[in-house]
Amino acid sequence: MNKFFKCSAVAALALGAATQAGFAQEAAASVDPAEHTVWILNTLLFLIGGFLVMWMAAGFAMLEAGLVRSKNVTMQLLKNISLFSLAAIFYYLIGYNLMYPLGAWSIGTDETGGYLGAFGVAVLEAVGIGADSADDIAYASTGSDFFFQLMFCATTASIVSGTLAERIKLWPFLIFVIVLTAFIYPIQASWKWGGGFLDSQYGFLDFAGSTVVHSVGGWAALAGALILGPRLGKYPKSGGVHPYPGSNLALATLGTFILWLGWFGFNGGSQLAMGSIGDAADVSRIFSNTNTAAAGGAVAALILTQILYKKPDLTMVLNGALAGLVSITAEPLTPSLGAATLIGMVGGVLVVLSVPMLDKMKIDDVVGAIPVHLVCGIWGTLAVCFTNSDATWGGQIISIVIVGAFVFVVSAIVWLILKATMGIRVSEEAEIDGLDLDELGMECYPEFVAAKA
């Protein structure tokens, strides 16, 4: 009897499996698999690009940890993981829909674009959506788009962190990060990437964010540096500049290579499509141009520091590579390899010349973020006109000015409010002892506690 029941059960299962297979084949026959391949590949590009850009958070953390003094390393590491986490939350709560409005623009018309997006939390697709629903939603998963765009927002905040290192309080800085990632960055980004007025009225071109991301971080950092003031002893009353060597140039070099790697996601993912032969070819072209621009920036900084200072400067070469990357970000697709190399080399030269210029103005930028991200962000945005015939000088310049004025003024107001209400600078004693001990009560290198710089 047991044998009979077992045979019956096996037969029933086989019949059910055959029936299901028949239904599956019938469904497959009614839907062309190639019809959804583009959606899937676009989503995959967003996800791969997104986690590569997320890896840049580690790059910024290592770069800053290597360029600050040993008594401030733990603080920089804490700031970097905190700012990334805050960006993730507040971009979800506010920033994403301010950047990509829900429905029509709140201000402006469909023809001219707008000035402000919509308020509301980000909403992803339903769990397990079908092919028909996917077609109705977008050309890629909303979740992948949110994830990808969030990484750009967090990158902007990371730029500010390094400039203000070694003398800013933790909590005022994190409050500024919330304002930057929830409001400042998304609003101006919507003017270009959200279909706003810079895109529709001025034809502004910024492929992956030389202005929208990098110069925004640079303007916010510049406003903070001016209001915060330089580190103690950086610019002695007797004149000149007192250098503060970084704690670990190996970490700074590692951070630079991590950023270089992450930039392939930053620029390559900004193609926003990989569902055709042309898109795949364009992504590969972007990778190649991004890489050679970084190389050009590094080599230009290497040669120029040898000429100017009689010895190469590793920190300048590291920033030269980053300068090349920022410079090519506004248009990594249309240049030839040679043109991309030259664009990167100009960025490397600008960094080497800008760092001492900031020192002459007594603007203390610990890691050189303002020369790399602001100066080269402007250069890269202008350089679009040399390789993309759709760009106009007027459209690029006025967009740079509008974004710069908005970000600098609003950032300065926020910094001034924070300064007046809770203070933004640590005490002289805390700055001398190091922020690790005073603000956190722990050090990154406790065995060297007696050898503070």
Describe the structure using short key phrases.
Ammonium transporter fold; mainly alpha; disordered N terminus; 16 helices; two-stranded antiparallel ribbon; 453 residues; 2 strands
Structural write-up:
With 453 residues, the chain is mostly helical. It has a single domain, classed as Ammonium transporter AmtB like domains (Ammonium transporter fold). Helix content is 70%, strand content 1%. It contains 16 helices and 2 strands. It has a two-stranded antiparallel sheet with strand order 1-2. The radius of gyration is 25 Å and the shape is globular.
Task: Describe the secondary-structure layout.
Elements: H1 2-30, H2 37-67, H3 73-99, E1 108-109, E2 113-114, H4 131-137, H5 142-163, H6 170-192, H7 197-200, H8 210-228, H9 249-268, H10 277-309, H11 314-329, H12 337-360, H13 369-387, H14 393-421, H15 428-433, H16 435-440
Antiparallel strand pairs: 1-2
Q: In short, what is this structure?
A:
This protein has 16 helices and two strands. The protein has helices spanning 2-30, 37-67, 73-99, 131-137, 142-163, 170-192, 197-200, 210-228, 249-268, 277-309, 314-329, 337-360, 369-387, 393-421, 428-433, 435-440, and strands at residues 108-109, 113-114.
The helix content, as a percent range, equals 55-70%
Shape: globular
State the CATH architecture: Orthogonal Bundle
Instruction: Please outline the major beta sheet.
Output: 2 strands, antiparallel
Strand order of the largest sheet: 1-2
The structure class reads mainly alpha
Count of beta strands: 2
| Nearest-integer average pLDDT | 88
Instruction: Tell me the number of structural domains.
Output: 1
